[in-house]
Structure formats: C-alpha cells, structure tokens
Amino acid sequence: MGRTARRADALLRRRRSRAGLLGARRGRPRSSRHHHVARPAGDARREHRDRDALAGRGGDHLAGGGGAARPRGHRPRCDRRDDRTLRGPAATRPDSPSTSEGDHVNIRPNRVKQKLAAGKIATILAGTNDPDLIDQLGPLDVDGIWLEGEHGGVDYADLGNLTRACDLWGMTSVVRVMDNDYATIYRTLDRGAQGIVVPHVNNRAEAEAAVEAAKFAPLGKRGMFTSRQGFGVGDYFKTANDQSLLIVLIEDIVAVRNLAEIVKVDAIDVFFVAPNDLATSMGHIGNMGQPEVQQTVDGALKKIVESGRAAGTLVNTANVERYTKMGVRVAMTSFFPFIQAGTKEFMERAAAGARG
C-alpha cells in the first residue's frame, strides 16, 4: 500500500471511530486490529469510494464507469451548500437585493457631472484629507470634495475611506494626482475616485494622454479592472467612462498659448485655469492678483467658454460671482479662509467682551 493510500486509510479509520463504527473494536489488543468485522455492502462501497477520493483517485470504476484517475494531489470538490451558505447572511434578509446572475446595481452617480450636464454650477471644496471631516462637511451640500494628492498627504491607502465618505454624502470625490502618469491616474480611479485632476497639461498630446489613462476603451487605454465603484455594476466599463470626471489644469503660460488645440480633445470634462502656478510661469511668483496675471486668467477662461467646453477655476467669496457670470461652471475653493475668518472674528469678539 502506497503512502498516500495508507494516509487515506488511517483517516478513514479515525473518521469511523468518531462515528462509532469501530466502537466494538475499542479496547482490543493491537494484534486484533485486522480482525474482519462484517459490514453491509453499502458501507464497504462507501469506504472504498471515500478512500479513493481522499487518495486522489477517481471512483467511477465503482459504478462501472471506468473513469480516468484524477491527477496526483487533486482535491475532491465539496458538496454544494444551500444558497444561504453560499451567499452569506445577506441572502437571508428579506430586504436584501437579489444576487442572482443578471441582476445588477447602478454605479454611484457623479454629482459634479450631473450638474455640468444640467448646465448648472458645480462647487468643489478643498482642504481635507480626513474622512471624518468629510462627514462633517457633508451636510453643507457641496457637490464635490477636492482630495490633494499632488501637494497634500493623500495616498493610495487613504483613498478607499476618503472616497467612501464622499459616497455616503453623494459628493464627487475629486483627486488631484501628482503628474500626468498613466499608472497613477488609473490606479487612483481603481481605488474609488470619481474624478481625476491632471496637473500641468500644456499641449494637445498631453491632454490626449490624460484621456488614455482615465478612460476605458474605446475612449482610452485604462487598464481593464473593476474599481471599488464598480462592484455589482452591469456594463461597468462603459458606465465608468460615462461617470468618471476628468479635469485638466491649465497652469502654465505655454498651456494658455496652446489652449485652442487643448480644448479640441474629447472626453475631458473640465478645463481648469489654475492662477497661482500660472502667475509663477509668467514671472509673478506668489502674486496671482497681479493685473497681467488676472488678464491672462480671464482671457483663458473666456476662450474655454467660447469653445463650448466647461471652464473651472479657483475662486473665493469676493470673486465667485464674477467668475460664474463669466461662464465658469466649476468653482473650487478651500475652506481654510472660512476657518481663518471665523476664528479671527471669534477672537475679536472675545477680546471685545473682555474689555467690557
């Protein structure tokens, strides 16, 4: 008897012992272990079948089928459980969605894209990399949260919880990546981001590269993988193309000069003029309010609007109305100035009260 067969035989003996089949043998001397005990024919057939299965051999010959032996190391297939065991506890709840083949859920809608499609203004708030703070911002009803992966601490490990927090409040998670890199862009989307912001897009070729990374075929070349946003979604790849938001940053003077060609690239949702880096590229470091810079920003935004594409830019409470009247459709701001202004007012009022 080979080693595998001996191990199978020993396992069967232990199994029968636990079931009480060897109860009559317990306490006998070792010399009597081979003493024959008559058993019904059905038990013998089951024993041979089980031994063959455990030893990795086919058992078809017991039924006269003459089946081929299974390869060495083959593990027999377990019996099929009922649906509740296979599907988990959710299958026992009367209100749980069907998990049968052919039933699907819809992908989460992209609120910023919905606003743009309806011709409305979309608002995006920047300044957080904490999911708890996103929950606190949720009731404010902004359309999207800007998650900073270029200058901030957001990384791939954070994106799951950050984007889930946005999902809970129906806000679009918009992640600025470090550069116009194929793998960086599609991995960020795979981790659950609904929107991508690509920095320093300076010509048509770079705009097309951003589309290739952010969109599945036939629009682009994004790696074929179902992201966290796609579990259970039917026709996911097409739906993801429709729902993912792609923003490119116009933040260098060379991009402004090439803007007429950049805005011709399809599948880009927003052309966002970033004034701070643009000022630096014009030689006005840290002075985005400089008149020449402001004139250049306004001129770029007007070109985008006149081309029929969606324009976005950085705004504040002082200029947001002017920009939206100009045709800007995506207004992004940080909540830091609001915190600073509120804290300053609080401190002044507290000091005034102390003075009597």
Describe the secondary structure blueprint for this structure:
Elements: H1 3-19, H2 41-55, H3 83-87, H4 111-117, E1 122-126, H5 131-137, E2 144-148, H6 156-168, E3 172-176, H7 182-190, E4 195-198, H8 204-214, H9 236-243, E5 245-250, H10 253-257, H11 259-262, E6 270-273, H12 275-281, H13 291-306, E7 311-314, H14 320-326, E8 330-334, H15 336-354
Parallel strand pairs: 1-2, 1-8, 2-3, 3-4, 4-5, 5-6, 6-7, 7-8
Helix pairs in contact: 1-2, 5-6, 7-8
Report on the structure:
With 356 residues, the chain is an alpha/beta fold. The protein folds into two domains: 1-24 and 37-75, no CATH class; 111-344, TIM Barrel (Alpha-Beta Barrel), CATH 3.20.20.60. The chain is 42% helix and 11% strand. The chain contains 15 helices and eight strands. It has helices at 3-19, 41-55, 83-87, 111-117, 131-137, 156-168, 182-190, 204-214, 236-243, 253-257, 259-262, 275-281, 291-306, 320-326, 336-354, and strands at residues 122-126, 144-148, 172-176, 195-198, 245-250, 270-273, 311-314, 330-334. The protein has an eight-stranded parallel β-barrel with strand order 1-2-3-4-5-6-7-8, surrounded by seven helices. Helix 14 (320-326) links the parallel strand 7 (311-314) and strand 8 (330-334). The longest helix has 19 residues, at 336-354. The chain is globular and about 90 Å long. The termini are far apart. The model is unreliable at 21-40 and 43-102 (pLDDT under 50).
